[in-house]
Amino acid sequence: MTSTPATTSTSATSLAEMDDYIPRYIDVGINLTDPIFSGVYHGKQAHASDLDAVISRAKATGCKKLMVTGSDLEESREALKLAQLHPDYIFTTVGVHPCSSTKFEDPKHALAGSAAYLADLKALAQSSPAVAAFGEIGLDYDRLHFAPADVQRKWFAAQLDVAEEIGLPLFLHSRAAAEDFEKELFPRLPRLKGGLVHSFTGTKEEMWRLVNAGLYVGINGCSLKTEENLEVVKELPLDRLMLETDGPWCEIRPSHASAKFLKNASPVPGSPAVKKEKFVEGRMVKGRNEPAAISHVALVIARVKGVSVQEVTEAAWRNTVALFGLGEELEV
Question: Where is the signal peptide (predicted)?
Fold first, then answer.
């Protein structure tokens, strides 16, 4: 595969050129079950729930589909309930995040034992067509205080066994663990239905190994923090790209290397954001990322690569529908 030419010029993606193009974004990684979208911060109610407004703003910015991430059994159940309230618009993943992998062995969360917890996870993943992927599963060696590496590896392997049985594509997490992640995953890929490595922050070499293995790569604000991150995005082939926000986290901040590419960008619906203590209905909350901001992710990628926003958005649409379906069919 060859890399895409890149430039820091904004001329190739002027906002004027989007006048005749109606974007169709898919946010493949959004954590709408997080209490922050119900106005709860650190266990305390700071403002009224504005989840409906968040979803409305996503639609206003051009998000045609949302994939809500499941990080453990309980959260996956809540995500599926949300999908059932918004049929054909919200889809979900079902799985246990590596940082939550100790839940397999915690009696409080698995009263009948780890085998029953895994069986419940498998049953939930097969329970509805709204479940688009099995995940978020993988390895995270940046946060070993949540789960030791050996526990993460054990339950990553066990969940990959389930994925082979049920035939869903994968929603994957790899952070500072590329060697072990690839060692466990790559030999299984011929028996799996493909997958997305979301919120990618790794090196060029890691990116190319994933791409050459047939995997897709998800880009959000965390993927665009540093100049090194931007160099990776320059080389990421468009036919392997997906877009995400990973809200409420991974916003693009003024201190990030990507911020300079948002010069003259159209404001996100609900802007300007307000502090949670000064919450105003219809406005974004400062420091809380949400799907409406996906337009800025796409714009940064376009400007980094020196291509149009339409090229970025349409490539991501095709890739996402090809892997996850989401009730859509690709144009011939």
Answer: none
